[in-house]
Design a protein that fits this description.
By secondary structure, this protein is α+β, with helices and mostly antiparallel strands. The chain is 44% helix and 20% strand. The strands form two sheets. Strands 1-6-7-2-3 form a five-stranded mixed β-sheet. Strands 4-5 form a two-stranded antiparallel ribbon. It is rod-shaped, with a radius of gyration of 29 Å.
Length: 153
Amino acid sequence: MSNGWKIFIVAASGLLTCLLVAVGIYAAREGKASASTTTEALTQTFAKYQDMELAMYDGLGVSGAEVSSLIRSVNEQDDYVAIGVNTKAMTADTYAYYNRTYTSGTLGALGSGIELAEDDVSEASYLNPSATFLGSIERDSNGTLIAVRFVQQ
């Protein structure tokens, strides 16, 4: 075999190698973009699922015992949501926030709310376990559920 053919084969092999490397890099980029899109979709679905757990209280009448249980659950899980309660002993549109403070769409730190008054009937924030509370939810500008409010009926 002549030197010309050897040079041609070496050049063709080099070109083929470069082509395969370029295709591999392209496939890796496409795979990364696809994985990123899929991960983002899963994250959004998971966030919606978490919201559904609390969004179910919108327009739902629940007992005071269930409200107390929800407050404890949210505190234990460190959820980014405020739980507000308005009892008949409070003035209208006044809420006691138990796990976090909440003012005009701004949540305070976990534990910044008031203590749950389960035993002291003289407290305005006392949650009667057998009373019925009507739930409502509030979302921020991004659509994230940030507050669940209960009004004693």
